[in-house]
Amino acid sequence: MLGIGVLGCGRIGAMHAANIAAHAKARVTAVYDINHAAAQAVSAITGAPVMASASEVFASPDVDAVLIATATDTHADLLEQAIAAGKPVLCEKPIDLSLTRVDRCAAAIAHTSLPVQIGFVRRFDPGHKAVFEAVHNGSIGKLHQLIITSRDPGFPPQAYLEKSGGILRDMTIHDFDMARYILGEEPARVFAVGSRLAAPTLMNVLDDEDTITVVMTTHSGKQVILMNSREATYGYDQRVEAFGSLGMAVSENRRSHHMVLSGSSFTGQAAPLLNFFIERYREAFDAEIDAFVDTVENGSPVAVSYHDGRQALVLAEAALKSLQEGRIVDVSEIG
Amino acid sequence: MLGIGVLGCGRIGAMHAANIAAHAKARVTAVYDINHAAAQAVSAITGAPVMASASEVFASPDVDAVLIATATDTHADLLEQAIAAGKPVLCEKPIDLSLTRVDRCAAAIAHTSLPVQIGFVRRFDPGHKAVFEAVHNGSIGKLHQLIITSRDPGFPPQAYLEKSGGILRDMTIHDFDMARYILGEEPARVFAVGSRLAAPTLMNVLDDEDTITVVMTTHSGKQVILMNSREATYGYDQRVEAFGSLGMAVSENRRSHHMVLSGSSFTGQAAPLLNFFIERYREAFDAEIDAFVDTVENGSPVAVSYHDGRQALVLAEAALKSLQEGRIVDVSEIG
Amino acid sequence: MLGIGVLGCGRIGAMHAANIAAHAKARVTAVYDINHAAAQAVSAITGAPVMASASEVFASPDVDAVLIATATDTHADLLEQAIAAGKPVLCEKPIDLSLTRVDRCAAAIAHTSLPVQIGFVRRFDPGHKAVFEAVHNGSIGKLHQLIITSRDPGFPPQAYLEKSGGILRDMTIHDFDMARYILGEEPARVFAVGSRLAAPTLMNVLDDEDTITVVMTTHSGKQVILMNSREATYGYDQRVEAFGSLGMAVSENRRSHHMVLSGSSFTGQAAPLLNFFIERYREAFDAEIDAFVDTVENGSPVAVSYHDGRQALVLAEAALKSLQEGRIVDVSEIG
Amino acid sequence: MLGIGVLGCGRIGAMHAANIAAHAKARVTAVYDINHAAAQAVSAITGAPVMASASEVFASPDVDAVLIATATDTHADLLEQAIAAGKPVLCEKPIDLSLTRVDRCAAAIAHTSLPVQIGFVRRFDPGHKAVFEAVHNGSIGKLHQLIITSRDPGFPPQAYLEKSGGILRDMTIHDFDMARYILGEEPARVFAVGSRLAAPTLMNVLDDEDTITVVMTTHSGKQVILMNSREATYGYDQRVEAFGSLGMAVSENRRSHHMVLSGSSFTGQAAPLLNFFIERYREAFDAEIDAFVDTVENGSPVAVSYHDGRQALVLAEAALKSLQEGRIVDVSEIG
């Protein structure tokens, strides 16, 4: 039974805490949030004690590992502290919005052999994972094109957007990771276009985009297409299509059930798409905890490494540069 | 927090216990099974104490209500004892294989106002429920035909079959209940045919059928068709189709994901049907507990009544008589 | 180039004539209808001369074979005359509404070796045919249950209904044939229920049913379920499901295209079901002519025999008797 | 009855001739091909006389209009001659591989009011057209992203590839036209990547690509993504997805039927994708002729104009430049 200290008790942290509490091989042994009420709410559900500080969490003998789900700009500090305290870490993405900070943190923890897993949860989705497997077991032959569609049901709060680092760093970053996961090869060149179509006024205020297309190529010529929108009225659109020399594997959207209603002027699905990520990636969040427990307890390889966390950010930076300079960017320009 | 005592810690009981343990408004406060090891296993997961007898469960002050998931032939006795002890009951189906016993139990508990809910879990399935709603909110107009397909992925153990009361009482009974749930009207006449096609030798030994079709009609002329098989190689096939004057509502099968693989000789779903009832009706089992807690704590109407439990058995008896006598049976012949 | 004389230039006859005219190996060489204007319209499209009588068609040296698409009560007479004149026949279903007349016609043409093909067009539908093949090539193992759904988009004109012989003889008859085609075995027992739900007043006037369920069993225990309605608001519903020991084959409905529209409150097919039989079974009508030409020109076996035409009628009679007498009818009771 | 002279009796010309012959309002009145045998074969099917030269076709009083389906490098010459002879023209795409030649031809026919329709047949596909309508009738609100997938089942003959002008001019050109059709706005900037993945050796010989991704943006910020492959083992993949402020419209692939086969290790479509363009776009080829007849006979607007033919080529040129120079190309750079 792995004792996990949960740092950050907002929406994501609370969800993780509940998953850990329900997990057969893990339990929550400490919770902390700068918002004491949030920590108490999670404590009430999990039975874990509220700690007065992150340090107290790291110091607790009941805490075998920590989950970092605090505000993004605290991730790297807490990660360094956790490693210094000898605790394995499961850290929500992104590690940091600054590649410099990410690399400084990497240097600070370079000596450790403690597992650090980054929270790219979509790798654990059964459908996306099945695409990964179809690519890697030869079912579709050699991969030629990889198309990832991610559209959110609606805009997050403006306060979030102001700190998110922009759509490429906060939203497309999932797709950069998914692309690397499935490709088995690093993207070499990146091209991005962004538009302000769904909420142009807000986007102008934030100097951000709400509609994104990214094209990446690898040295071997594989083509990757990522398409994002901040707002899809029909729900949370999450698809992955891998096209190869022997076939195609497509992870389609999911619904809570499949009741089809037919009438004189329609034939349609009665259930909307699973909405939002907590529902859509429910099994994936569970599997993410499974993988972390398995790594800490059994030494199985880290499922999503610190390097993976860094590389997704590198691609986001490359895409941002492409968008700003209106040209193709070589990933090697970034780092 | 409703304290529930779990009687019976076999596959179904253990699943219910885990669901209750994970439920926000309920917890397991006692477990009992004639097989002590089974009770201990459930105790280990839920933290609830193992009791030495059912009586001890009924007597516990921590037990606000009980869930009966023991062998079928003990249901009625335990139900009577629970009511006598003042405990609300959630009882797995069927109440009993004998209609006489069911009616004797009904008489024994006639005086009580304590809630008794019968475990026809499929009523809580989101897809089937959506069909129910389409029928009752007028989306498909007046119901004309109702078609229910239930095929199990494979035969249960022979030991189970020997005591199950036959396919009509143990398997079709779910469909009799589903039919009544959606119809909003009692079937009046029943016609059944049975065949021994999947495992004829075993069926001859048991004098049972493995393939069933039942047709029922109501006084208003609605037609109901139930189709069953003990063995479907492609998985657990669970569909409901309601056809009416303004349209059709179909609850289709479900899969764990929707990865579609296309190659030179195939285009297919990579994931099989959700298999078996614990996976397929996962949300339904949760919702069943929700409904029970809501009834006990808030006095909301019983979702599946004792009468519902009885009437499904009446239809099973009528179908059995039809099958044995090779004729249409009027439900009033049964009781 | 097979010269075909077309008898009957109503909706079906005109459609057949156009198909024959467009066929690479056949042409229309004579047309006849008691309604001269109808014959002229078909003549204008096909370029074939209008004949003054059926006899004139049979006598024409340009007529190598005839297609009978006249009113049902003239089929048997014309069929006998065509055979007497030495012409192969493709005769629309049903041969006649009276089994006695069918058998008298059979006797009258018993001596001939000329091909007579009956117009059960659905056997030629690519999807239904694929189910047939899945059953007969072993893909689904041994057949256990066969479920056929046929619902018309709306009622035919009352004038048609008054002469059609009732729903079992005019509509279900297609399903009786489809069942025999796929089963590869004769149904032995028939049970039918009928209801007056879609247009009860009209049904009472006609003493007919608008909603039908038929269950049939074979000597080996295979179960067949046929479901009909005269009116489905969502269109022409044509499905066949074969369930067997190794799997299931389902011929689903078809649409003119697959544009799926998703919005905030719907996800649905933009195109309705192909409507009505001329569109839905377009390829099948072509393939039916192919088969007939192939039989006449190359001596390949008759695709749908006179016996097939008779047996579908026998099953309709059995179902009608079941419905009238409220009991299971043994097919041997009919003939 | 419009008399059409068919120039070019290869695969496409012969198909068009058969469609015209079967058309209610048109007929083939002359055929010509430099390959006399090809012309004779089409003559045999349509009954139209074989002409000794294109000039003879233009001179025939029975020829009201002409269809040009000859080799691409003869299109512009024949088009000019047809207009000079006073004949309306339906010309297969592309007008010419050289934009200079296209513009010279435009100048040569600038004076005429005779209709000239270019053969971008996909605009007439029922599914793609339904996407167009969803975009233009407001069903999906304002268009944000348009994604077009076109993958051929296999490589054309090398002889064809040597003369085709490369994948962007011969294959992607359909998608450039589809994009313009649906957008209702001209693309302003083009970015393309090409890879040699399916047949690298052949592609190196031809200095061509077999795998293409093109991204285009309009002045208003709409994003267009085109994806091509010369070889998809699973068949002819033809999809269009329009994503907008109020929803999404997707034209999915089509099959000849929908028989779904389920077994212990698969659930799949038994029919492959409709293959190849003659089958997939059968209704579209018919509707293209309809539109042309309607324009010539009733003066309805030209469905696909000469300008449309030119602009698709402009986008192909822009994409080629992008691919060659590794940069975003402004469409105004081309012409």
Automatic annotation (TrEMBL), chains A, B, C, D:
Coiled coil: none annotated. InterPro entries: Gfo/Idh/MocA-like_OxRdtase_C (IPR004104), Gfo/Idh/MocA-like_OxRdtase_N (IPR000683), Myo_inos_IolG (IPR030827), NAD(P)-bd_dom_sf (IPR036291). It comes from the Bacteria. Residues 3-120 form the Gfo/Idh/MocA-like oxidoreductase N-terminal domain. The keyword Oxidoreductase applies. Its EC number is 1.1.1.18. GO terms for molecular function: inositol 2-dehydrogenase (NAD+) activity; nucleotide binding. Keywords: Oxidoreductase. Residues 133-330 form the Gfo/Idh/MocA-like oxidoreductase C-terminal domain. Belongs to the Gfo/Idh/MocA family. This is Inositol 2-dehydrogenase. It comes from Acetobacter oryzoeni. The gene is iolG.
